[in-house]
Amino acid sequence: GQGRDGQGFDLATTIIRMVVDPFRDFTRRRGWLVLLIFVVLFKLGDAMAGHMALPFYVELGFSKIEIANVSKLIGVAAAMVGVALGGTIVYRLGVMRALILCGVLQMTSDLLYIVQNWAGHQVGVLAVTISVENIAGGMGSAAFVAYLSGLCSRAYTATQYALLSALALVGRNVFASISGLLAQGLGWPAFFAVATALALPGLAMLIWIGRRPEFGTPAVPEGAGTA
After folding, report:
1. pTM as predicted
2. 3-state secondary structure the chain
3. 202-224: per-residue pLDDT in tens?
């Protein structure tokens, strides 16, 4: 159709420019499919554990008021501290080493749910569990954001970052949706052990990617193939 200014508006062209071209640009990177799989896996275990945290606390006898008070007073501050620490570590160590370190901390923090299960209805232990989990999660998120940003082309930064972030969320949401069934079938200690172990494939891929500096770099030189 024609706009009032006489210029045509082609929705298909706009979609191609805003979505298809950025994705096509990303697929020209070396190891692009491996990178996409890693994006899905990195926070999978942490997401599954976090998805079941509230039902877990309630089953241990914590009231929703107790959980909310600890989460709001301590958890939010802990998450902010974690993001700040993660950013500092990225600055000091570089993105890849920071991502490995923060990923390991993020994974091991999930073991505190098992400690909480042993402790039962202890508000002090709950405060430690939520604090450590939020600090480690914030650190992992800060390093992950820095890594995703580094994968994006300058010409498509916003769109590629949005696509990568959406992919990470979709992966986490799809797999986290079976968390309830796993928790019911395995019991809490075994469930959180499995959630912790699910972080291992992402960390293994990260170490493997880190040894291949060519991953993420353009496989086709910029401007190649153009008239």
Report:
1. 0.83
2. CECCCCCECCHHHHHHHHHHHHHHHHCCECCHHHHHHHHHHCCHHHHHHHHCHHHHHHHCCCCHHHHHHHHHHHHHHHHHHHHHHHHHHHHHHCHHHHHHHHHHHHHHHCCHHHHHHHHCCCHHHHHHHHHHHHHHHHHHHHHHHHHHHHHCCHHHHHHHHHHHHHHHHHHHHHHHCCHHHHHHHHCHHHHHHHHHHCHHHHHHHHHHHHCCCCCCCECCCCCCCCC
3. 999 999 998 888 787 776 555 55
